[in-house]
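JOB MANIFEST
job_type = single_chain_structure
chain_count = 1
residues = 228
[input]
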Amino acid sequence: MLCPEIALLRKSLATQAEIKRKDWGFFKKNSDTQNSLPTGGVIMSGGNFHGEYPAKALDFLAIGITELASISERRIERMCNPSLSALPAFLVKDGGFNSGFMIAHCTAAALVSENKVLCHPICVDSISTSLAKEDHVSMGGFAARKALEVVDHVETVIAIEILAACQALDLHRPLKTTKPLEAVWELVRTKVAPWDVDRMMSPDIEAVKEMVMSGAIWDCVKQNFNEF
């Protein structure tokens, strides 16, 4: 890929990690809304609940990570589309009898579209509550929940792409790809059989998603990358 999306994604994730490591503690210790403020012999308590700073960081995290799913879904399309891949449509033989990865691709596309809505920054919203005593709120709780949902969607889309890529490799046999990718193929095939005829795909997606979440896929690549 010639475009800078991946570099920007890595930068945005690194920014969030840096914020968590450095800035959250600073703002907590130095904020009037986090700690009691002694003034004129009176201790004034602030709104210890306020979470606008993490809300902004989590909104940015969701915006950054969803790019990965957008790129992944486009690669799924290119593999499933015979005009672009020169492979059987939807990566399955006997296409008149089997739908192959058609619905899996629809699932990935739907999750990417859902993420576009979920990535609207909630930290820009506010509503007055508690008799106007809480007149500016962060919506930080929702920022966290929707960030987790976006990440879950991204993991699912990546799992679908890995399944599609392994199926594409099977269709290219006896040709071989790079050693790291062959190692990923071997790992996936310990849990998921090739797609010869239609079956329920959700167990396959969940199995590979678990490999993504546990770091097994990444560990597999790292172990073989130096030799490549």
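[summary]
The chain has one domain: 5-19+52-127+135-225.
The helical segments are 5-29, 52-80, 82-85, 102-118, 140-172, 179-189, 202-214, 216-225.
exit_status = 0
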